[in-house]
Amino acid sequence: MEKAAGSPCVGGSYPQKNAEILSSQYGINLFLAGLLLTFAWAVHAVGISKSHLLSYLITLMLIQLLWMLWYLCRSCTQRRLIRDKDTHAGARWLKCGITLFAVITLILDSFKIGYYIDFSNCLSPTEGIFPVTHAVHTILQVYFLWCHAKDIIQSFKTLERFGVIHSVFTNLLLWTNGVLTESKHQLNEHKERLITLGFGNITIVLDDHAPQCNCTTTTLCSIFSQGIYYLYPFNIEYHILASTMLYVLWKNIGRKVEHHQQHKTPFKFHGITVGMIFGLIVLTSTIAIVVVYLIQIGRSKIKSELALTMFYLHAIFVLALMCTAGIVALFIYRLEDRSLDNSKNPARKLDAELLVGTAAGSWLLSWGSILAIICAQAHPKYTWYNLPYSVLVIIEKYIQNLFIIESIHREQEKVNDDIKTLRIVTISRGSTLSLTPSYKEIYNGRAARDSGEVPHLFKGSICGRESGGGGAKEETSQENSSVLHSASDFSFYSRNSVTNNKRRVLKNIAAFLFLCNLSLWIPPAFGCRPEYDNGLEEIVFGFEPWIIVVNLAMPFSIFYRMHSAASLFEVNCKT
Hints:
The chain has 17 helices and four strands. It is mainly alpha-helical.
């Protein structure tokens, strides 16, 4: 009988597990086919053109659009049904972030449409259809994520698994396409700059995909072509954020959740002034460094070396500060005795895995630089700054990952309502309420002597007791009892004050690290990449092998900084 009773449960879960495996395999094959097509176009494979790649991406976006429309229509018809929600998924600040990136992506699409119109005589029609389809895809996807990112789907589960995983890998392929296009542009600029650094032995062959015809309006063409590459970093972040939110939605399909109240943790500027000030100083100085770097690099050998030296010194200082802040935060955690929340949570698990996984990109580049410095025969002066920079990049990510992962797994401190609203109230003989002067006065017994009122505390609640004509002994005993209660209350507030100070320090550290990660996202995202311009690694490893390593690792390194900033924002709200 027990076996028969348990069989429905097994029979119900087995098809769903199969659906999860089949949908994941479908998504992986979809991604690999697109990845191979992207690679074939990048290396100019025979018979593969950009129009083939764009046609594949357009087809994937159209399929996703049909699925999202079907899901939205079905949701409207079932609006009255009560649905389970994952309160940890699709945070409001994450939705706001993806909306900002989506708006800039729409500007990018408009630039691409303008670029196609100017070069329409020699461009494939797919290059005009792609940005239009992508713009529609972006608008509907952002709306879908705003409305349904928290959904826990319990109906049509097999079909929904395929629809969601299709959306995940469609965004990953669009991310890959954006990364490759932006990397090819950066590589062309890098090849042109290498000569100024004295690396004339490296063969310079530009990978040109420019249209083979004249532009109808030269000024507009220049604005569109240059503006596109400055907007690509935001497009790249948009698609990777969308794919992570959709992945959490896919993991939540058919999930059983425990119904408990989720405490809202709004972001507040109060108490984080110090961290914000130092973080804004780092952010401002980083923007200035990037501007100077992009102006000076490639002008001459001396200016290029000075730009690299300036970048390394600034980065070493910022990374050292971040390491110090992270160590202080971890030390405070060691002083606290708070349990970790180990409940099943796909969003939190994905955050931790992405932090460690994407950090590997920076670690790969750092170890490559360290090995190149050790093995190189000649060492220009500026390359020695690369050594402490690379070492600090490795250490800083170790410390920061540990701080973030421990922070998002720590249980939120539950504060008693009595503690939040604790006040000492005395009741006079005329039954009027008044606040006692201060803890110090209560402790010294002056308040009771001056007003003739006797405060009394009972089980953490505040209550008054009327002293009606008792003897001197009764008054003395009540005064002693009041002093003891006040002393105990005073020590409680001392402990609470220490706890508040720790929380304030942690919030300032989280705010500082948040702005520092945004600052360190800016240089590689906008073309300030010393891994390209240093030149030493290319001599040791060879030009093409090192460029391949950089092009593979750099997107993960860029995403790590943005994802860390998002995680630290959540830590600041939670602390």
